Amino acid sequence: MKFKKLLSMLSVVLAVAIVASVLPVPVAAAETVTVSNGIGITSATTNDELNAWADGAATITDNGNNTHTVTLYKNILFEKSAVTPISFGTYNDGAGQPTIILDLNGCTITGSKIVISNYGNLVINDSAGGGKVLYDGGAYLVAIQNAGYSLTVNGGEFECQGAGSVIYNATISATPNAITTINGGKFIGNNGAAVATFGTMTINGGEFTGAYGIVSKQNGDGTSAGNITVTSPSTVVNATSFAFVVACDGTKTIGQITVGGGTYNAPNVAGKTGTGDIAGHVGISNGTFSASPEGFVTPTSALAKTTTQAGSNYIVGTNEISNAAAGLSGGDQIEFLSGDASLTGVPDGITVVNSGTGSVYVNNTEITDTPVVTHTHTLEYHSRVEPSHTLEGNIEYWYCTGCQKYFADAAGTNEITAADTVLAKTTEHIADGTGYHYDINGHWFVCVCGEVINYQPHDLTWYSELLSTKEHNGYGHYECHICGYVSGRYTTVYTETGDEDVNVPDDDYTEEVIEIEEPVEGFEIETELDGVSAF
Description:
Strand content: 35-45%
Number of strands: 46
Largest sheet: 30 strands, mixed
Radius of gyration: 51 Å
Helix content: under 10%
Distance between the termini: 157 Å
Shape: rod-shaped
Structural class: mainly beta
């Protein structure tokens, strides 16, 4: 009995264990360590030094390839009185110094002064996801300052809660000689800029949010300005004011923002600070925009506007336009505003307008100033038919039963008119096969078109049926040996001539036709044929 009770209890324990094993295990929030100031981290920094600074919040590992990885295990919170950031590298050690890799590892670093300064070569990763660097001081400062040689950001979230300055507030700001590469991550500038630089910045991806998206700055002595290139269509900018800003003090070097892709949701595409001219300092070759980028599109790039039930977008670049057009639905519209474009695979029912001056083809149809509604051709094949004298023929062609258009090729790319398909009737007359037709004067053929052709006078031969004599008249008829015409019977009379003729009974006479006795049925025959003598 005790054994059975023990077995029952074991069964219950086992069942609970099984249930517990399939339930999700909550991940404990990272512990937070408060520090009074930052620390300078180089390849020579030890774990003891990190422990003494932040009580096990970070470790450093030599990767053996001239790189070292600093991994966070706890959140780090700067005291409000802190004045120095966490710095990486030493500027005086030059561009060849070892690279430090900061792995946020899901942890957050928060400070009310500049949180991170890079003076060497820094890479920021976030292997666990959810890691963040936050500046919350409300002043004219940034979360990360790149004052070194290179900064590469591959992931993580970066936020600046500053004073709302387009120039002085950003999640990342870089000095004139610094190189910044952003491959991913989220950059939240709030009422300031998402990212800004005096130096060179390449954006290969990421999400940028703020009053201002991407900012090119000018340094104080006017010798350098930010040169920013956006390369990736995965880049997203959500700005409440301007997607791009260029510092434009006309007395200084003005920077450049080159846009090769991305999605930009902002009421204005580009703005400036200062009194200089922004023209030529923002060049857009690809991308999708909620506001019109006209004036900033490069000369060789196409610009189109898509309109759907959800609203309108402006698309730059043939590939971007093609991708956007492929996602449209029946009833939507795409308007080409400038540039050349050739699109295929655009869905049926899309209204296409070309209001620019470029050469535009959609689904192999040229778009001019007349709107075209796209559809997939349903082509009906027509083989070549040779013309005759009575019937027109046609060339080989294809006819679309949907749009009622004609094409000279099976792909439906070479549009022609209905008139282009017609082969005219032949001009040469052809007898209709009914043989000779004739009257008393001549014979002819009838063409298949009904016209008289090849008319000729009869070639007549006289046939005497009864020779005339002094005692009685004779009679005979004419025959055409070409068409077979036979005349009615003609009367002949005897006339003495004194000539000898072996063909008549008396060689001293000739016969003369004087009247017709029996006309040929169906013909009105004259009683005398000019120029024909009977004998």
